[in-house]
Amino acid sequence: MGKIDALNKAFESRVRLGIMSILMVNEWVDYKSIKEQLELTDGNLASHVAGLEKLEYIEVRKRFVGKKTNTSYKVTHKGRNAFQDHINALEQLLKKM
């Protein structure tokens, strides 16, 4: 297996890299915060969050705050390991250059 094969295809998107980077250093982050920090549209964020959730890399929590719904995200243990492996593979590629 070449070093490039060690990179996780789930993180090829800059949006997914951004989402995971935010979640790796925070416990729970709400939808609005991620959307604002990454300057994304609702549709763009929703599609990438759905993909990460399907892979079980993030956990979704929906609840009510007052009468409004609040959706928050947290990286799972599986997601944390996958992202860390991806970062390690990137670092190995950089060391080879």
Can you give a write-up of this model?
The radius of gyration is 15 Å and the shape is elongated. The model has no long low-confidence stretch (mean pLDDT 94). Helix content is 54%, strand content 19%. With 97 residues, it is an alpha+beta fold. It has a 3-stranded antiparallel beta sheet.
**How many strands?**
3
Cα separation of the termini? 18 Å
**Would you tell me the structural class of the helices and strands?**
alpha+beta
Helix tally equals 4
The percent of residues in helical segments reads 40-55%
Q: Could you give a short account of the major beta sheet?
A: 3 strands, antiparallel
The overall pLDDT average reads: 94
Which residues sit in consecutive blocks of at least 5 with pLDDT less than 50?
none
Sequence of secondary-structure elements: HEHHEEH
The share of residues in extended strands comes to 15-25%
Backbone shape = elongated
Rg from C-alpha positions?
15 Å
Task: Output the strand order for the largest sheet.
Answer: 1-3-2
